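Collaborator request, handled under Task 6.
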Amino acid sequence: MKFSTRILIVDDEEMICESLQAWFVRDGYQVETALSGEAALKIVENSPADIYLVDIKMPHMDGIEFLTRLKECQPNAIVVMMTAHGTVQTAVEAMKRGAMDYFCKPFDPDELSLFMERILANKALREENNTLKELLSESNQQGLSEVFIVHSEPMRAIFSKIEEVAPSSAPILITGETGVGKDMVAKAIHFRSERSCGPFLAVNCGSLSESILESELFGHEKGAFTGAVKARRGRLEMAHNGTLFLDEVGEISQKMQVSLLRAIEEKSFLRLGGSQPISSDFRLISATHRDLPSLIKEKQFRDDFYYRINVITIDVPPLRERLDDIPVLADHFLKRYAEETGKSLGGFTHKAIDLLSSYHWPGNIRELRNVVERAVVIARGRMIGAEELTFVNPRHDAGLIGSATLRELEINQIKAALESCNWNIVRSSKRLGIDRSTLMRKMKRYRLDRC
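Structure tokens returned to the collaborator:
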């Protein structure tokens, strides 16, 4: 991404322009310089940049005036102010007028590289938000369907619940196995809410150590710990007027749960090493594949934190419980990867669809996407056949249906579980790996009653 990113440096000191240009070119960016705000605006007229580094104190047109003029012709421009320590307050004022961030002179090359990486990550997040908002704004349901498949009865029920809960600001807990699309449900809620114009910030709590997660969420002041060379805003602060999505929330330590609970309830917190409370109005959406009530019983998860994040629950069923979605999802992924690879494919053969529908999908939608992408890459003809489908976790009965239909296989499996558990619904649902309501719905559909 950095190789296509254009940076315009605006500073009246030629030495600073040359130094910054050399550093950023070394890092792989395309860089131009301007020694005044007026010169910079002329460059912008012909060739707008992606990121602007602007000195605050310049003769004639200062950085604040340039920022104002730039925003008139390029409202979404990413502007970073450069300032001496004595003008930090002016830099803060510039941020109120639309600048994204600021950093202080003198510069350290390594710090600048890290700083720019963060700016690029934020830029990518904003672009993702804009893309999803465009998809979702085309029409109420049509736009959402571009990124959120609403086909089977269980997913229609989830979509209805999203429509119902999105307008509120109540915390939501999304549960479900790994790979079922919990992140897409979270994004759908955000973009159907009144906060859709605000940021959607996602944090994978399971991939970060406790200390890094704390800094990522709360931010830190300069000198808060070794390596904290400048103050940094955390995700809680950046999520103001938007949504904070905590993925894999079940991995958060109990110490962190206490800190987060206070921030959620008070909408206020301290940066690491800070003494000034920071207010932030955000909506919290959490997700987990773990059984949090069991973790509470085992004293591994706090019940007060659980109750606070679980005001509303949305349980996303695994792919094996919504077989009607498999052909639709497979076709969606086929079109995407066929377009990416430039192949002209007509779809799947009947045998391939039967194989996809009979597989148990332990990796859910993520695994389905992987299987389809691989099939598209190795496809030789116009149609994808069963021989081109390769599963990561094959099961001996997958695809070997014999003379029985899928309906008959499911009925027989449910009957066997019920009989082995003496028709106890709770134990039978656990044996089948589905929840109680799903089992009862299937029993009603297949008219399975104890004789």
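The cover message to the collaborator said: "Confidence is low (pLDDT under 50) at residues 135-147, 396-404. The CA atoms of residues 12 and 339 lie 47 Å apart. Please let us know whether this matches your experimental observations."
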